[in-house]
Amino acid sequence: MADTYQAFSDEVTKRLPILVESARSGEIARAVELLTDAVANNGVIRAFGTGHSEAFAMEIAGRAGGLIPTSRLALRDIVLYGTHEVSELADPTLERDPKLSQELFDLHTRHPEDIYIIASNSGVNGSIVGVAEQVKEHGHKLIAVTSLDHTMKVTSKHPSGKRLMDFADVTIDNLAPYGDSTLTLSSGLVMGAISSITAAFIAQLLTLGVAESLSARGITPPVYISANIPGGDEHNNALKAAYAGRLRIDG
Questions:
Q1: Distance separating alpha carbons of residues 96 and 88, to the nearest angstrom
Q2: CATH number of 211's domain
Q3: Model confidence over 7-21: pLDDT tens digits?
Q4: Are the C-beta atoms of residues 61 and 249 closer than 8 Å to each other?
Q5: Angle at Cα 107 formed by Cα 109 and Cα 44, nearest 5°?
Q6: Per the structure, how many domains does the chain have?
Q7: Is the residue at 145 inside a domain?
Q8: What is the helix (H) or strand (E) element at residue 163, kind and residue range?
Q9: Calpha distance 132→141 (Å, rounded)
Q10: Domain that holds residue 180
């Protein structure tokens, strides 16, 4: 059992230096520049993911140590802010439905300088590809976080036949293998999913990179501090006021 834990640790840690190098001079670095340009020009970073990739959007938008000008799209928005019934959220195939994309996209206010980050391990579900399509049709920059190994081995569930990466200005590989799992156990079970771990690491590299790049441009990075420390709410609310009506982090 201990060997299994170590094997999984090895699978995680061998990927982190690759992502760090990408942040220094690769696709993550390119994404940081696009994100910094957007924030510097009063844009908001809008993050979207479904299933386990929703955790990536939560890592980007509205958390302590993160950037203030961030907002999150979620499938449940069609119920919370739209006209759909709660029962529809129980449908496990909802994320595959491309028909919801325009409605979901339109439920969020937009500014011409806003930029989108969409995370999807497979990069082929209908809602993911549909929102990506909407992003580009409305002239926004798009960063994709996906598994290149997985997405190139599966068929799109969107009528266009396209994948998330086909719409992206920058595509960041989350380094997850096809099927996501990294280990074959002695029982024959294939386990050790890794995409959520690498995606969270990528989200933090992007956030740190943007803060450093803003500082280099002479701009004080607008950053959340924990609401659970004295003065946290006051600090956060004062900074959020500059983006009144443009941020949604509790969807």
A1: 13
A2: 3.40.50.10490
A3: 999 999 999 999 999
A4: yes
A5: 35
A6: 1
A7: yes
A8: none
A9: 10
A10: 2-243
